[in-house]
Write a structure and sequence with these properties.
heterodimer, A: 164 residues, mainly alpha, 6 helices, 80% helix, B: 432 residues, alpha/beta, Immunoglobulin-like, 4 domains, six-stranded mixed beta sheet
Chain lengths: 164, 432
Amino acid sequence: MTIFALILSILLAIIALAIGYAQAGVDNYSLWFLLLAAVWLIAHFRKWYWFSSIALLITIIAAAFGVWNGFPTIWMLLGALGGLLGWDLSDFARRLSYAAPMDDTRGMERLHMERVGIVAALGFGLAILSLFVRIHRLAFEVAVGLILLATLGLTRLVIGLRKY
Amino acid sequence: MSRSVLLGLLTYGLLLTGIATVKGEFIALALPLVTYLIIGYLQAPEKIKLEATRHLSVERTSPNSNVDVTVTVTNRGSSLEEILLADVLPAGLTVRSVPAAPVRTNRHLLRLAKGESYTFGYTVSGPRGGYVFDALELKVNDHLAVSSSKVRVEMKGRLFVLPPVTRVRNIAIRPRRTRVYAGTIPARAGGAGTDFFGVRDYQPGDPPSAINWRASARHIDKLYANEFQQERVADVGIVLDGRLRTNEFARGHSLFEYSVQAAASLADALLNQGNRVGLLVYASYLAWTLPGYGKIQRERILHALANAKTGGSQVFSDLEHLPTRLFPPESQIILISPLSEDDFAPLIQLRAEGYEVMVISPNPVKFELSYLPANEIVGLAGRVIRMERALLLQKMGRAGIHVLDWDVVEPFDLFVKRRLGRSPVWLRAIER
């Protein structure tokens, strides 16, 4: 189940990015995206799980590049989301490989799919919403709240980075 | 790099780019990542409190026998969505799959609700050795594996894989000095016993059956009585040579396991005869098991032998540093060693100090030739080394050291029976 979902996610990322780029008239990147998909799948089946992080990085950078150049945002968003799902499922498959044959992997897979699906839907929904919501004036309290949230996030990031 | 750090960096990159370029689309791109991170952190377990117990089906076993390990993990904290657990195996033990049974491993992936327990089992086996089970390692993740904690649950366990003990009976040793308790070792003193020792004057109180009528008939005014050799227990020190240079050969072949097996069988037999036995493993350091009697001493010696390893040390590269003071004076010392040329002088020194020395020497020449290709060069080299060894053993024999050259192809019990066997009392009585 996980492998099937992983392949679908990678295809979603690649096809969305390729369509987005093609719609903007940049066709020559499609081949590179296909190559990325192929390498990602090969890396997964050869247990080079570290490659999924690089693949996520590439898809996010490709989506950001598309956004920067004014390519259709919806496809870029789907591309980034596909990359995120592929990265998550690749790591989940790695964790599943630790399971013993008698472990309830089916149940864990089903639960993970449900939760990742909810996260993806929520993230995508919020992103779509953000594309249509335009805030012309931000209240001071909201701005302060956002700054505090950003500071908190930054602190956690720094704490995380200090471990390395 | 952890997953949360990678996602955090990407998120901040997108947000900062969005702010810098005043493009809301970048923020939109970052939102799925932010959602993923936030939900991951919200689902992180609040309190990790795990307890575990491990049960071994046996605590002492023989080499390569299967031992069932059962581990139970109980979650005393909050619900845990994903736990990767591995029962850390001591080096040397391997997980075995049992034919016609589901594959059982020491690694599992599971969920544990609050208060729930999970029990799993697996089978291990390994070569001779003392193994210490240390801890259960767990990695607890939220369901997106954004936050992850490593937990070690300490639960000690010990498994002794003891060397195989072949039953050896009636080992004939003749130390100069024996102890006061009755045993099976001839004590070189007259008294109650079974073997004829000499004739002495008849004394009141001697049983009539002890009168030597033939000797008495020669003297009109005197009676003579037979005297028998007392049989007592003795002090025996077993020295196991664990030097790398005498035990290890090319291509990973080793004689040490044979030596350990011999030491275990000898210790068992000598303790069964009621003797006081000590063990010294002479390797990279001196591992000394104090002399003692009985079953507890047998366990001590077997545990010491389970942990015995070969070792290369400059100090103990020859037998010069054999600590003779550990052994009672004039006791029996049994050295189990493949021997090298320079072991002659220290062994002569032991003899000079009054010890009765016996050497059981697993034959390294025959052992090495058994796996080397049979060609002219190997054959010639074999002849030379064989002659050198024969000369060394001959010299030792002349010096009063009892040397037993053991071809390890022959089972140790049969070898001992042939070379050291002592007929039982009833048979000796018939022979007389």
